[in-house]
Amino acid sequence: MKVAILAGGVGSRLSEETEVKPKPMVEIGGKPILWHIMMYYSQFGFNDFVIALGYKGEVIKKYMVDYCALNSNLSVCFSTGAIRITQRQICNWNVELIDTGTETQTGGRIKRLQPFLGDETFMLTWGDGVSNVDLHRLLAFHRKHGKLATLTAVRPTARFGHLETDGDRVVEFSEKPQTREGWINGAFFVLEPSVFQYIDADLTHWEREPMEKLAKDGQLMAYHHDSFWQCMDTLREKKLLEAMWESGKAPWKIWKEEKNESISDGSRGVHWDGLGSNAVVGQTRANGV
Questions:
Q1: pTM here?
Q2: Residue 289 belongs to a domain
Q3: Which residue from 59, 190, 230, 234 has the least number of CB within 10 angstroms?
């Protein structure tokens, strides 16, 4: 099953970082949040990614193209220019990087990915949020209800401390999930290909007409996730995620430290025609995986 990730927005509320890079490339613990999201999906066996690019998409392309080489041992022949990876990190991702336009809205980006997602169920999320949602249970929930779309409903942590008062005396103070405010859309969707029919064109906002129409038609279901979820819209939220990572207890980090493996007859394959075009990045191995 393929995982679509929207990574084309400007991220204006995080302008301290996004003047030179797209928001999905803002780093948490020295790695882009996009990498964290992909690592999380990978732990559930989802390794085929289709990434919708827009604002400064060339930064994401360069990162993906360079990732394997920069995190591997290399053998370089200066006389021929040949480069061979002799030891690399274990990573079985296949990544399609698709230019979807700088002005395209979320619905339009999803629509532009249709040729690359095929006629099968797919997952979708934004490139700026992490969670510890159980993706296998999410998928099972989606398959059981048989509707076209499932979103993950979450309760975000309140931005400001919640107060309960008795007159002027504070009797309770907390920064827990804002349960009193109800559920919100936390992305981490599972979708059927028929949802493309609900999207008109590039300027369509997925969260407006398409999702409103899906709900009206009884085709939108919510998987309630009452554990960790956090988006990264502001510098404050970036620092919050960074602190979680540095504590060694980041809720979304369910993988072990990456290990290197030797390659005797494998090669890294990169097929592209420039940073201004769509790209496919993957790895080939001796056993064909």
A1: 0.83
A2: no
A3: 234
Q: Which residues pair with 223 in a beta bridge?
A: 152
**What distance in Å separates the CA atoms of residue 186 and residue 207, rounded to the nearest whole number?**
11
pLDDT in tens, 213-257: 999 999 999 999 999 999 998 999 999 999 999 999 999 999 987
CA-based nearest residue to 41, from 116, 111, 94, 79:
94
CB-CB neighbours of 70 under 10 Å:
9
Q: Is 12 exposed, middle or buried (0-12, 13-18, 19+ CB in 10 A)?
A: exposed
**Overall number of domains in the chain:** 1
Domain harbouring 27, CATH code: 3.90.550.10
| 270 beta partners | 281
262 in a structural domain: yes
Domain residues for 254?
2-284
**Residue given tokens 């022949």 in the structure block:** 77
Residues for the chain: how many in total?
289
Choice among 77-91, 251-265, 272-286 with the minimum mean pLDDT: 272-286
Residue 133 counted as domain residue: yes
